[in-house]
Amino acid sequence: MKVSYKWLVSYFKSEAPRADEIQRLLNFHAFEVESAEEHGDDWIYDVKVLPNRAHDCLSHIGIAKELAAITGKQLREPIFPEEKESLSIQQSKDLLALTVEDAVLVPRATKRVVLNIAVGESPLWLVERLAAIGQRSINSVVDATNYLTHELGQPVHAFDYDKLAGDAPKKIIIRHARAGEELTTLDGKKFTLDPSVLVIADSEKALDIAGIKGGNNSGIDSTTKRVVLSACNFNAVSIRKTSQKLGLRTDASVRFEHELAPELARRGIERLTQLVLELAGGEATPDIIDVAARTSLPYVVGVVPKDVNKLLGASLSEEEMVDTLARLGLAAMRVTPSARALELAPTLVGARYKLGASVRHDAPAEFDSSSFISYLHAQGGLPVPRISIDQYFFTEAIEESDLMPGDLIFTREEGVAPKTVSVEFLPGNTFSEGVSHVALYMGNGEVIHASRAEKAVVFEEYKGSANFKDIVAFRRIPGAREERLLVVVPVERLDLRAEADLIEEIGRIYGYEHVMAIEPKNHELSAVVHKKYYYAELIRSLLTKKGFSELITYSLVGEGMHLLENPIASDKRALRTEIAPAIAAKLADNIPHADLLMLPSVRIFEIGNVFGKSEKTHIALGSSSSKDNLKELLGYLGENLYSGKSNILELDFEDLIRDLPEPLSYTDIGREHISANRYEVYSPYPCVVRDIAVWVPESVSKEAVVQIIEKNAGEYLLHTRLFDEFAKKSEDGAVRRSYAYRLVFQSKERTLKGDEVQSVMDSITAELNRQDGWKVR
User: Fold this and answer.
1) What are the CA-CA distances from residue 430 to residues 234, 369, 414, 625 (Å)?
2) Which tens digits make up the pLDDT trace of 483-539?
């Protein structure tokens, strides 16, 4: 995201961070700054905002908040007043009728009409700010919408009211596009839509591709006198899919596809109203049409101070933690979850009962028994599972005689099937008696709970109550009596949902460079020699000395005793029962490359697990040479043959080492033969192999022959290997030697042609034949 320094500093109350500090501050505490360049009297930063922060930091205000938190400087955020002197006597609701057909894909939609505007050129300050981030000025109203997208991070739009179909109140409908419906966008591109695409439409036609791009049939121009201001919230997945389908990626789609808080839509339309009135004059209708699927409670998260230092390896005081959170706009207060729940519970007596009530959306007006318990403790910063059976597994058993205020009582309601299997907390775990109801113990034999029978939250004595005829458990919530810092998360911070999130925030703002290294304590523990590991390493050492290479192949195969429920591929549906087939396949794969690897034969092995009636460790060996007797090679290890073929041997490793002595140390394993080889980029092109044999006098060394070959072989000779040698007396009694060499040619840039390799071989042959007493066979 492009960020303007002059734009950023406009949000600071007094002295802002210097331009040359921005890159370092963000790099060390927030985001990577990919570039920083001077732009006239401004600096432009290319900030790589990570996906988990796109919902609040793809904006100048978001980056300014980060810098304020890092430096401790104060911000002056834009105020969103409704200009009383600029209000029209007409109402938006009398001019517009807003309908949202799919509340799941449109969590919030807001509209407002501004009358009697005069569209013109934007002031210089606005033109310069947009130009600094690569945006072209269009006109005062369109510029206001573009400006707000980069200021607040909430995309907004404006429609020409008089270009909408129908009479007042004119209809605006957010709906799925009709099959084959066409729309030409503001930049003149024509799109054919289908029902998977969401559009904002009037009673006759689509006006824009929702959340992505406006249409040219309702655009703002110099004749516009009345505008409909629009700020919505759209489902992130829907916007992402539409953007990909249409090949249309915009500043708006990038922000929506990373998910925005629905509450930002209201802020967006209020700020847009302010800008339009400032830039184009006019009169705003006093009301805002606001269609929200449902409201949400602010997210509340708790953090235990000692957990902060434990996880960060720091020694921060609680005061420093509170100060750091405050700089991020996260006001913290000290609470005890149990005490908070006991204080809050009586204030909720009388709240309606609703089966399946949501903690975030229905509370505090409606509860069922388990959502009531979850809500009470969430308000104390302690996350407790939402479902009663999960709450049972989350808590610890106590006796009735040990009951303390804040403990839970689990019962089975008459006529209600109890839940016996954990759903989310410990999936699959069962409690045979089951639970269907839970209550908070208040002390003196009294409980508060959301009662299905009374259809409300009630306060009563549990003994003798019809609700508690069948008590199955008394339980205590771990950590409920431990003090913690309670933080109410700002609506735009969708990334802060757990204690670890707050700890990360404290760590990055405090500065990880301030966390001092602490040398671990020396506990003087003596290492225990692991028999299986010892002999596995010993065998690896012995086999690699004999020219074997170790493989690690897939444990997943096409067929086997144990099938996977969700296989990743048809040939990986089961756990393997043997390694030999993989060894055979890898031999076949590598034999053609033996010459390239300068190997007389391919020798491979693997030590790995197989899965028959039980899980076991096997060792398997394979060789491409018929001269290798694999059983003989492993003769010193025993005769415990598991399975074997002519060139492949597989053994039960655990059975193999069962009677071997217990090792005392690892010092005698011996891996000193392993060289310090380094990786080198290999050629993707095939090699060409040629053989050549030459008779030479007995006095000629093989090194002399190689020297002549390599001198005349050119740049593509990769390897020269002697594969045959013998001596023979001639008729005159002189002894001559025959040396046979395998030459491997390869290019890193292209495939070699046969005729060019043959030309090289002809040169080598001619040079060898020119030597006194030499003759190529």
Assistant:
1) 40, 20, 21, 57
2) 999 999 999 999 999 999 999 999 999 998 888 888 877 777 777 889 999 999 888
